[in-house]
Design a protein that fits this description.
Layout lengths: L2 H21 L13 E2 L18 E4 L7 E5 L3 E6 L4 E7 L4 E2 L16 E3 L2 H6 L9 E5 L3 E10 L2 E11 L5 E10 L11 E5 L18 E6 L2 E6 L18 E14 L3 E7 L4 E7 L8 E6 L8 E12 L2 H7 L14 H18 L2 H15 L1 H16 L1 H10 L4 H14 L9 H4 L2 H13 L20 E5 L2 E4 L1 H16 L5 H18 L4 H29 L1
Antiparallel strand pairs: 1-15, 2-9, 3-4, 4-5, 5-6, 7-12, 8-9, 9-10, 10-11, 11-19, 12-18, 13-14, 13-15, 15-16, 15-17, 16-19, 17-18, 20-21
Helix pairs in contact: 1-12, 4-5, 4-10, 5-13, 7-8, 11-12, 11-13
Length: about 550
């Protein structure tokens, strides 16, 4: 899971557990391995060869006008351009979505240019090869070979970029061939090239929202890594991930690199070799270009060398990823623990929606059904909390009597629990069992494209996004988090005895935490929580009515 998801889960867990601990009148409670990171600036400047010679690339374009080539497979309709030998259109047929973003707030190129850069300066600033017209020829229906002549430090070289598309599936091949057409050997800077798929990945979304952020991704020594830019917090402007340096470099074994959007992935997987570093454009107002440093030997006159990749382009779906290469499954970024429950939640919502036809109302019915399923756990939790509340006077006496003897105080409290057959954690444990289900719903609403653009009623136009009704000075006004907080207060008031002093203040603060945690979360998730509160309020009113009737 990404960092924001982990933080969200941690905060919700702390708030939820803290809330139920407080309502039962209080009960007495590795640093991750650092990846070595290198920056391009040292004694040896970025963009210089070992001999201190700057890499200079000149490209001679083909004559004539830009040519457009189209290729259609069962999954995609691709448009390729001779300018830069790039993919300028990628219509994903199953969802009717273009994964090329024409306009974006990062001033980034939308095309998948599959660019080759010859040093780190060029990685940031661009290469003439991306701007010139490449010659092209088509072999069969699904193979296009582009070629361009260039000079590297004055030495002539021919570069070929060959795309091979499969009729079915979520992958295609791209091969880079370098031919030394000069009379002397050709040495590359540090014996490496930097290859990357592009700067952006669609579909076009509101990129100001935390959950629509893009990220560069890569596999470093077998571990999944990602690096997003911009706001990373729950409120706008909170938690920028940029460290201020224009380029980030991590050395090690690189099995693949790519870009991740909210619902899609583009990944380049080297064939028969691994990269030696992952390099990212870390500038705030640029795209999300992530490159792989490819080892390449000195090229003798008349010789050539080819570097080939398999490219995955498709949804964040583990089955789709596994069908291409099992090493990229982690890019789906779904917890192995939550995934089965998440898939079940999505299946339930879509199954209900077949009959209702509105995912918002489907979520309402799903919330009611889940409340019924978890009712025994809720009843058990309420009973345990009620017993704890009944013991509060005796617990306070023990605390007052043994306030200077904490060990003895604890012993007497445990004795009281045993005599009354009360588990001090019984109030929150049944509810903790529901947490994986709740986080599965969170993951479903965050990452499932099936729930994208799902409307409900009134102002709730998209359950995968916050229910913003207005924006004032960059601050979004969302209604559902306020409703959810209000129902939390009411539920608390109905289900607990009157508290006093510091505990009363804490019980007031705890629900307020939810408004900050949930403010920018998907409205479907906030709606689910608010509905659970409403159903619990109705249940509690019924319990209170029965208790009053028995006394009367």
């Amino acid at each position: 899971m990404d960092k924001k998801t982990v933080i969200a889960i941690a905060l919700i867990t702390i708030a939820w557990v803290g809330y139920f601990i407080l309502t039962k009148q209080e009960y007495s409670a590795k640093k991750p391995a650092e990846v070595r990171k290198e920056e391009p600036a040292g004694k040896e400047e970025a963009g210089k060869s070992k001999q201190g010679e700057e890499i200079k690339v000149e490209a001679a374009g083909a004559a004539g006008r830009e040519e457009i080539i189209t290729v259609k497979t069962k999954k995609f309709f691709f448009t390729l351009s001779s300018r830069g030998a790039s993919i300028t259109g990628a219509q994903y047929i199953p969802r009717d979505i273009d994964l090329i973003i024409r306009k974006n707030p990062y001033n980034a190129k939308g095309a998948f240019d599959f660019s080759v850069r010859f040093d780190e300066d060029e990685f940031l600033q661009g290469t003439p090869l991306d701007a010139v017209l490449w010659k092209n020829r088509k072999e069969g229906n699904n193979r296009i070979i582009f070629s361009a002549d260039a000079k590297i430090n004055g030495s002539p070289v021919r570069i070929e970029k060959a795309y091979t598309f499969s009729d079915d599936g979520y992958s295609f091949k791209i091969a880079y061939r370098f031919i030394n057409t000069g009379w002397k050997h050709l040495a590359f800077n540090d014996n490496t090239l930097i290859i990357s798929p592009g700067e952006m990945l669609g579909p076009a979304l509101d990129f100001q929202n935390t959950y629509n952020r893009l990220a560069g991704i890569y596999s470093l020594n077998g571990d999944f890594k990602q690096s997003a830019k911009g706001d990373g917090g729950f409120l706008p402007g909170c938690g920028s991930s940029s460290n201020g340096r224009p380029l980030k470099k991590e050395t090690g074994t690189i099995n693949w690199i790519g870009i991740m959007s909210r619902y899609f992935l583009i990944i380049m997987i080297p064939e028969e070799f691994t990269g030696i570093a992952a390099i990212e454009d870390n500038r705030k107002d640029s795209g999300f270009r992530t490159g792989i440093a490819v080892p390449i030997k000195r090229l003798e006159p008349g010789k050539d060398i080819t570097k080939s990749f398999t490219v995955y382009l498709g949804e964040k779906d583990k089955q789709h990823l596994a069908s291409v290469n099992k090493s990229i499954i982690d890019a789906a970024d779904v917890s192995k623990i939550i995934e089965p429950i998440r898939n079940f939640v999505i299946w339930c919502l879509l199954a209900i929606n077949k009959y209702i036809g509105n995912l918002g109302w489907s979520l309402v019915l799903f919330s009611l059904l889940s409340k019924i399923v978890f009712m025994p756990l809720t009843i058990k939790s309420n009973e345990s909390m009620k017993k704890m509340q009944q013991l509060t006077p005796k617990l306070n006496e023990i605390k007052a009597k043994y306030k200077d003897k904490p060990d003895l105080m604890q012993k007497e409290m445990m004795k009281l629990y045993r005599e009354n057959k009360v588990n001090p954690m019984g109030g929150c444990f049944p509810l903790l069992l529901q947490m994986p289900f709740f986080f599965a719903l969170y993951s479903a609403l965050i990452n499932s494209i099936d729930l994208w653009n799902a409307p409900f009623i009134f102002w709730m136009k998209d359950l995968s996004m916050p229910d913003t009704v207005a924006t004032v000075a960059g601050f979004s006004l969302n209604i559902l988090p306020i409703i959810m907080t209000g129902t939390t207060f009411l539920q608390q008031k109905l289900s607990t005895v009157e508290a006093a002093g510091q505990q009363k203040a804490l019980m007031m603060i705890m629900p307020l935490m939810f408004i900050f945690i949930f403010w920018n979360m998907p409205s479907g998730l906030v709606l689910y929580w608010a509905l659970q509160n409403v159903f619990q309020i109705m249940h509690q009113l019924f319990i209170n009515y029965r208790a009053k009737a028995k006394k009367g």
